[in-house]
Amino acid sequence: MTNPLLAQFVAEAADLLAEVDEGLLRLERDPADVDLVNAVFRAAHTFKGSSGLFDLPELTRLTHAAEDLLDAVRSGALPLDAEMVDGLLAAFDAVRAWIPVIEATGSAPASAAATGEAIARRLRTALGDDAGGSSPVTVTVAATPVAPTVLAPWVLDLGEETLRGLLPWLEATGASIRALDYRPDDGCFFRGEDPLHLVRQVPALEVLEVRAPDDLPAVTEFDEYESVLRFTALTRAAMQEVQYVFRYVPNQVEVVEVTAAALARLLDGGDEAEAPTEAEAPEEHRVLVGLLAAQRRVLAAGVPTPASVTAAVRVALRAASALGLSVTSPAEGAGPEAVLAWVDALVAAAGSPVVPAQRTAPVDEQDAGAERSADGPVGEPATEDATAGSRILKIEQSKVDRLLDLVGELVVAKNSLPFVAAAAEEEGHRVLARRIKDEYAVVSRVSEELQQAVMDVRMLPVSTAFARAPRLVRDLSRKLGKRVRLVQEGEETAADKDVIEMLAEPLVHLVRNSLDHGIEPPEERVAAGKPEEATLLLRAVPDGDAVLVEVADDGRGIDVERVRRKAYERGIVEESALESMSDAQIAELIFAPGFSTADQVSDVSGRGVGMDAVRSAIERLGGTVTTDSRPGQGLTIRLRLPLTMAVSRVLLITAGGQRFGVPIDDVVETVRTPWSSVTRVAGREVLVLRDEIVPLAPLAGLLDLPAADRGDEVSVLVVRTATGPLGVVVDRFHQNTDVILKPLDGLLAGTPGYCGTALLGDGLVLLVLDVKELNNRAAAAR
Amino acid sequence: MSDQDTSRPRALVVDDAPTVRLYHGEILRSAGFDVDEAGNGFEALELALATAYDLLVVDVNMPQMDGYELLTRLRSDEVALTCPVVTISTEADEPDADNAYRAGANLYLVKPVAPDLLEHVAGVLTSSLPAPWSAS
């Protein structure tokens, strides 16, 4: 896409669409919220205004219809109902579908006119417009400029034969065609302009003539960097389209309407032809007279302030001198009445009646507001908008990521200082070692703050991930015939952009699942003594260096018996195992791959991929999923997500003579205890910790490393897993450290058991263990 | 006025829609103006108080502070700004134009404004003044 204006529009459109969608859904819930109506109206209004700059009549027409409907709602003439919201959503959905096509081609898809027309009619019907069918929507089209009766002689440059061939067609159809004369500036190449390319952008070109001057200078004097070409062309494109192509060089191009009559006159009698500058003159004259008339209105309106009077007088002076009138300034310090009389005299001298032009913009006459009621609230000062007024700097994400990478490296580099201090101490430089440690504390603090500051840049509110929920709930609940109220809490809770972005998809699954399986149909709810309307709560709460996201409904909860049966039917768990499982464990089975309780696969959910996918997505993010099912009362699914993914804290351990890292998020506690406290249950070594049985598994064994000799004490790293705590027996514990976790790549990519590598401060590459896989291996070994 | 590069005229384009801002800004830039942009009335007020503009091109319907309010403040006795102001609105109604003129606009145009019209108007509005008005 080469057109920067269009690129800007596409970007703006995305913002506006998001704003409209969110606003409409909130509005449906709270139709009386004046601020919301205003916000949505403004977005539609801006859309219409911006789309008017392009040749997108379908878009302008549709957004205009939406704007009118919203205006009626805003002025209190119409109460907003679900029907209207449906129509408005459909309108902006259509626009959303057009944008990529507009981005690629510069115009709306071929089907847009019909689609847009149908939706616009729907909106108009809601508005109570009678003439729904015949598209009463006035479109922002450039006015048909009055076709000159006398054509400029350069039109003849297009070739008399061509023009004569055109004449019968023009006469037969009564149509007109546009002729353009483009004389690129001598130095245009130095401004990066490409005249030939530009003129070829004119749509529906019929004839293009490129001419060099007859009197080209001799080769020795010829400046090949200077443009001497002149382009004349005929096009069937509308005036506005042509003007749009040349919008950056409007003074180098002249476009005229060619009608049959004018063309015939030009071809038959050249004597009537006028110079092109004169043909243009009346237009400029009108603008100047319009300017004078406008100043008259300033002076005549109420009580103009002295600054207004001065400004108006100056403009009038300029317009008058541009008109070539002999100008005498009004007396210094003259009152508004005297100045008004003076302007009246100027207007009269300009040879035009003192009728303030209805519009002073003759070139872009349009009927955009023709049917807007005269008492439309446009003139009211806009109410305070919810949009934050703070200054925003938009930065490419790659730049922030680069910064973050550097900060991460700094954090790691600073971690080498304690090693240096230890080395210094070993060599007997205790004072130096102390100083290094002190410096380390300072660098550590500053780099942590720096890291935090950069992280903050990447933080996005959870509302970004919640954004799709309102629409989803609305559409699904209608489709399923359920009544659901969506409540969102803590949307402002922020987390890293990567986390937020990857959260959106799982949230959709969860919301779907809740509506499809959790929430009962209204009659069933009433029978159960619950309110007919169900409540779905989306809540985000900050929790230390994590964020908790809850999806809670007041539906039927997890039907444990049904899950048990399904799990058996689908062969997910063996019958014998099922019997020994607790209800909570059974409930967890909804996350098992291939599990689905829906009796028939609906198009909403029920393909048995949802919850499994949710869990793996969240775990990929370094988060966890837990459920809290209250049978008959509802289900809460709790996602615990790290605030950021960039820098991870790991616990260093040694096992089998090698150092490893374990993500600190997975660590519950570290225990050193005599071997004598280890007991056996069913032949397996376990540790009883605060009345909880923790199965033990030696890390060396899980990783096929040589086992170290058993000392008197055992070091147990207790980690959190999906099946409960696991005690991993290691040789030694070391300190916690911050690392940048990098995924295994190259030959090592996909090696099971490790979630990545990290560079330590002393230059050692650390393998970071994947606790989930360790747990699988421990389970398999039993 | 276009050939004097010593003192290029300076314009402020005010519109909440970035696309429209770019459009008006580019027309003025190609007409030889130095152009600043503001996204709402507050920003515009701040800029207009700090910089001597030769021309203001102001949208009417904007969040936080609309064009009328901005103009009323600029033309008030406290600020007493006398530079020419063109308002550009999507509304083609007379009451809207009346409001703009009452607030002190020197011209009310309806979107979309043809590039040559804006360029022409901008040229006239920033042309040199006959004495003694040019002095004040």
Automatic annotation (TrEMBL), chain A:
The entry's keywords: Kinase, Phosphoprotein, Transferase, Two-component regulatory system
Cellular localisation: Cell membrane
Ranges of residues in domain CheW-like: 647-780
Protein name per the record: histidine kinase
Organism expressing this protein natively: Motilibacter deserti
Enzyme Commission number(s) from the entry: 2.7.13.3
Organism taxonomic ancestry: Bacteria, Bacillati, Actinomycetota, Actinomycetes, Motilibacterales
Domain Histidine kinase span(s) in chain numbering: 434-645
InterPro entries: Bact_Chemotaxis_CheA (IPR051315), CheA-like_dim (IPR004105), CheA-like_homodim_sf (IPR037006), CheW-like_dom_sf (IPR036061), CheW-lke_dom (IPR002545), HATPase_C_sf (IPR036890), HATPase_dom (IPR003594), His_kinase_dom (IPR005467)
Chemical reaction(s) catalysed: ATP + protein L-histidine = ADP + protein N-phospho-L-histidine
Transferase listed as a keyword: yes
Domain HPt: 1-102
Region (Disordered): 357-389
SMART domains hit by this protein: CheW, H-kinase_dim, HATPase_c, HPT
Major subcellular site: membrane
Signal peptide: none
UniProtKB/TrEMBL annotation, chain B:
InterPro entries, per database record: CheY-like_superfamily (IPR011006), Sig_transdc_resp-reg_receiver (IPR001789), ST_Response_Regulator (IPR052048)
Keywords, ordered alphabetically: Phosphoprotein
In-chain residues carrying the UniProt-annotated modification 4-aspartylphosphate: D59
SUPFAM superfamilies assigned: CheY-like (SSF52172)
Domain Response regulatory: 10-126
SMART domains to which the protein is assigned, alphabetical: REC
Pfam families: Response_reg
Phosphoprotein recorded as keyword: yes
PANTHER family in the cross-refs: TWO-COMPONENT RESPONSE REGULATOR (PTHR43228), TWO-COMPONENT RESPONSE REGULATOR ARR22 (PTHR43228:SF1)
Annotated protein name in UniProt: Response regulator
Organism this protein belongs to: Motilibacter deserti
